[in-house]
Design a protein that fits this description.
There is one protein chain. Strands 2, 4, 5, 6, 9, 10 and 11 form a 7-stranded mixed β-sheet that branches. Strands 1-3-8-7 form a 4-stranded antiparallel β-sheet, with no helix packed on it. Helix content is 25%, strand content 40%. It has 184 residues and is α+β, with helices and mostly antiparallel strands.
């Protein structure tokens, strides 16, 4: 016990191991991967993936992708279900909700089909049946997509870089950073 009191590094290491064991023992692993958080309208695709990976999962009920707290698409063992009908015609989706080892949802919106309304806070949510924990619902942190539109400055009819653009980019980066810290 005296060794733990004299060695802060050892205490931190033991606490970290405890948190890791506790976290992986009681929370299903779900993650989100966003290819680009800064979208230049007409020039950048939107590419988002949700992953569920936990060997204790017996069955995936649903994997959902949400934007600004509204469900846009879900995948189950029976297939894909769209809640955002507007996005359905513009996006390509694939994935699998078969097992807890490699279930995923992947959505891609081609750069030519991205609209300003596609911006917002995206996150994944999943309901699973776990062998040791019963039915649980877990979600990822939010990732903010900032959509901007730029054209060459020398055109008279084009758009110019907004004075507020740099500020919005900074705010988006800070929000993403803070949300990542909450789940570390």
């Amino acid at each position: 016990m005296q060794i733990l009191q004299k060695t802060p590094f050892l205490r931190i290491t033991i606490c970290s191991i405890f948190v890791l064991v506790f976290y992986t023992g009681f929370v299903a692993m779900i993650s989100i991967q966003v290819q680009n958080t800064f979208i230049d309208l007409g020039r950048t695709d939107i590419d988002i993936r949700c992953f569920v990976n936990d060997s204790d999962i017996e069955r995936i009920g649903v994997i959902q992708l949400l934007r600004s707290d509204k469900n846009i698409v879900s995948i189950t063992e029976r297939g894909v279900f769209w809640q955002d009908k507007n996005l359905q015609g513009r996006a390509a989706i694939n994935g699998s909700g078969i097992n807890g080892i490699s279930s995923n949802l992947h959505i891609r919106i081609d750069m030519q089909k991205v609209t300003k309304n596609d911006g917002g806070a995206y996150f994944c949510k999943s309901t699973v049946l776990s062998g040791s924990r019963g039915t649980i619902t877990v979600e990822t942190g939010k990732h903010y997509l900032n959509i901007t539109e730029t054209k060459k400055v020398e055109t008279n009819d084009g758009y110019q870089r907004s004075q507020h653009n740099d500020f919005l980019v900074l705010v988006t980066v800070l929000i993403n950073y803070i949300s990542m810290l909450r789940y570390v």
